[in-house]
Design brief:
Layout lengths: L1 E9 L2 E7 L4 E5 L6 H13 L21 E8 L2 E8 L3 E6 L2 E3 L2 H5 L5 E5 L4 H4 L2 H15 L3 H21 L5 H41 L5 E6 L8 H7 L1 H7 L10 E6 L2 E2 H4 L2 H23 L4 E5 L7 H10 L6 E5 L13 E6 L2 E4 L2
Parallel strand pairs: 3-13, 3-14, 8-12, 12-13
Antiparallel strand pairs: 1-2, 1-4, 4-5, 5-6, 6-7, 9-10, 10-11, 14-15
Helix pairs in contact: 5-6, 6-10, 6-11
């Protein structure tokens, strides 16, 4: 579990030190007071990324004394984790005070994490980039090869697309050099994603029925963009003329997508908003269950302002089916949903980037 969290120059916080407990911790306050930033700091510390931005530099506090960098520290299990980021020095990682040169070495000491938020509806209604981000965040925690393969793939993809844009007539010898990197690392990404969805789909289907308390049938289809038999090399060769005309890479994992169906019909087009919210929650609960099944370790759940969007039935169903052994950090604008059975919850009030124990 994450037993402490310390922020410096992070988002709206000049500084914050807080002790956390096992089980349920709740941060309550109005919107735009800093509640989500606390959860975001925990995510950045444990997974070196934010669900709200793709750049760590964006997490620096804005205002007097801010903008130059931030630091987050926390005790996870027996290890003291530390993340620092500055405009000049970039990212610095430490475990028990010892610098870690590689993210993979640092992450070995961290834990599993699931982010659940009110805007997860975008997984169902939004574009494919949101679903790929969901896959990447999950697969990066389960497969050691995934994160480095993804970074290598993204670097090569940017370079390959740059060459298409730079030259009126493509320099295919240079482009093909990057194609080899795409093919090698793309195969790892596609293989991991296929395995992930095969294991996730039945868990998500079960969670959909549990939360909705109905016989809703959820189906998840993984659509790879690497050609027949996931042969990216052949697909790139086949799309060569199209790529030259459109001047960009047209095949590969950067175009993969997930298709969700409820009762055989497109969830994005035909499901009600309640069904779509249930689906988004089912995906995150299935992620939690998959983590437990594959690693025997309960993940930390970061739950951002979800309860205000759910009707009482779905809210109660969610609380019945979430992993009992997981530490849960929750933000909310009110506590009307909290019943007397949750008296063991630790409650913090958040107002204008100040955090105090509730009375």
């Amino acid at each position: 579990m994450l037993s402490s969290l310390e922020l410096n120059q992070f988002r709206c916080f000049e500084s914050l030190q807080i002790e956390l407990q096992p089980g349920l911790t709740i941060f309550v306050g109005n919107n735009a007071q800093g509640k989500t930033s606390i959860l975001e700091a925990a995510c950045a510390l444990m997974r070196l990324q934010s669900p709200r931005t793709s750049t760590l530099g964006d997490l620096s506090r804005i205002g007097p004394g801010g903008g130059q960098g931030f630091a987050v520290r926390g005790q996870f299990g027996d290890c003291q984790l530390g993340l620092r980021h500055s405009a000049r020095g970039g990212r610095k990682l430490a475990v028990d005070g010892e610098n870690q040169g590689r993210a993979s070495a640092y992450l070995c000491y961290s834990g599993l994490l699931v982010w659940i938020a009110s805007d997860d509806l975008i997984l169902v209604k939004g574009g494919g980039s949101h679903r790929r981000r969901y896959l990447d965040f999950m697969a990066g925690q389960l497969y050691p090869l995934y994160r480095p393969a993804l970074k290598a793939y993204e670097r090569a993809l940017r370079s390959r697309n740059f060459l298409f844009k730079r030259d009126a007539s493509p320099a295919w010898d240079q482009i093909d050099a990057y194609s080899k990197i795409l093919i090698e690392n793309g195969a790892i990404l596609t293989r991991c994603r296929r395995e992930l969805i095969a294991e996730l789909a039945p868990l998500a289907a079960a969670a959909q029925k549990q939360i909705s308390e109905s016989d809703e049938n959820l189906q998840i289809e993984y659509r790879a963009a690497s050609g027949d038999d996931d042969d990216l090399a052949a697909e790139l060769q086949r799309r060569r003329g199209d790529e030259q005309r459109r001047r960009q890479t047209l095949a590969g994992p950067q175009r993969d997508d997930l298709i969700f169906k409820v009762n055989q019909m497109s969830a994005a087009k035909f499901a009600s908003e309640g069904q779509q919210r249930t689906l988004a929650l089912a995906l995150k609960l299935a992620q939690s269950q998959l983590f437990i099944e594959k690693t025997a370790r309960p993940p930390v759940l970061l739950i951002d302002d979800v309860f205000g969007e759910l009707d009482p039935d779905r809210r109660n169903a969610l609380m019945r089916v979430w992993p009992t052994d997981s530490q849960k950090l929750i933000t909310t604008t009110h506590l009307d949903w909290l019943d007397s059975s949750r008296v063991d919850a630790r409650i913090w009030k958040v107002q204008e980037a100040q955090v105090d124990a509730a009375d």
